[in-house]
Design brief:
The structure is a single chain. This protein is mainly alpha-helical. The chain contains 28 helices and no strands. The protein has helices spanning 15-22, 29-45, 54-60, 68-80, 85-95, 105-117, 121-134, 141-154, 157-171, 179-190, 195-205, 213-225, 229-241, 248-260, 264-276, 283-295, 299-307, 318-330, 334-346, 353-366, 368-381, 388-400, 404-416, 423-435, 439-451, 458-470, 474-490, 506-511. Helix 10 packs parallel to helix 12 and helix 18 (318-330) runs parallel beside helix 20 (353-366). It starts with 14 loop residues before the first helix and ends with a helix.
Length: 512
Amino acid sequence: MLFLGRCNQLLQVPQQFTLLVNVGFRFYSSDLEFEIKKITKIINDHPFPDQPIHPTLARVIPSAAISTDFVENILGRLFATHSNGLKAFEFFKFSLQFPQFSPTSDAFEKTLHILTRMRHFSKAWDLIDEVQTIHPSLISLKSMSIVLSRIAKCQSFEETLEAFEKLENKLSDGKQFGTDEFNLLLRAFCTQRQMKEAKSVFNKFYSRFSPTTKTMNILLLGFKESGDVTSVELFYHEMIRRGFKPDVVTYNIRIDSYCKRGRFLDGLRLLEEMEQVNFFPTLKTITTLIHGAGIAQNTNKARQLFDEIPKRNLLPDSGVYNALMNAYIRSGDVQSATRLMDEMEENNLLHDNVTFHTMFSGLMKSNGSNGVLELYHNMLDRNFVPKTPTLVMLMKFFCKKREFDEAVGFWNYLIENGYCPHSHAMDVLLRSLCSHGRVEQAFECSVQILEKGRHLSNGSFRVLERYLTEINDEDKLRKLNQMIKKLQTALPASKGHAIGISDLNPDRLASI
């Protein structure tokens, strides 16, 4: 995400960090998180593609620091901070140079996920080829699922099938894929709600593979995600006619389908049916029903289900607290929701992103800025960084309320924690700053994004172009254009990314 100040030279190592290196990079449990944050920030802030990153990594990370936990934690934070995928790729390759480091499937999968999320599919295939050569055991069903799911989301049906065949040719050692791999292909389409494509794949490969109840549950989940209760029930009955036996997962999917459509009583009916056939409800089942009670504005039943959890020999987690909290928020009972946050702490359950998102949403609807700001500063005091939907929601709130100091402060907080804010948050902040005369701040934020190796959205660039033109600041416009063009040499722009001035307005470029 973002970084205050411009990085025109190789990032200098902070003095305190150099000291840590000199004393042997000794990690105690209390120090590990600090070091992981610092290294992640160094990677995110590294000027790319101006300078290679390996010399910096060698300079700030001594060989003694390279371990499985260290590498996995760095990659996890790079994923969470929306880092440039190529930097994560380079860090993973850097770690492979050390003989004491034994790469894990988790590290490989995180790197692959970062690359494919940013649509670096060619690099993702390069990574697969490299790992297949030196550490073939790292390639798992999960890694294949990551690739297929992202390709299904970003590319065509035919390209997804080609990727499946490519994986089979690369990884099967002459053996054909089985039901597990077939399930991955189905899941790739179902999670994207591409049910026409999922059914086509099912019909095409049904005779080749041997579908199981899990296969049918994946399709059932796809129909549920599409929001069509009728399709869920029709496919459920088709599943029964084909001789497949429903399991707990099947019931959970059907209950969730009803609850999300406001048919809470039908969800309760399925709970009773489930118990009658000796399937014990899981915590997920109860959480789903509590959420459904909230949608139906039935907070009494939501609380009753929550209170029954110990009687079912289940232990409540953050998820079930969040579901009950959501039920209170939907009914406008912010006080009860707030008490639940306190109760979570008493039970040593961490407030997660859903907790904060739910509370922010309720507070924004109920009592305006004061409650939101109090919770916001409480979140910052915990050094908690929310996920993209919450981040964008807060940025929109601050900008709508013209709390620009808070908005920029939030931006700075993200930067200081090594994050590179999602483009949606960038768009909201940049447009608001420009429209209220803070063009210089908007420009600095844009430079920070580009310096981190992340593309500006085309919309953000056009806004900046217009406002910089109005104030006759051609130097800043020229700098942005040059940075965009330079980044494209290493990281081609995708749909919606800024491509600079010359491609759309060559006359304008000539004038500056």
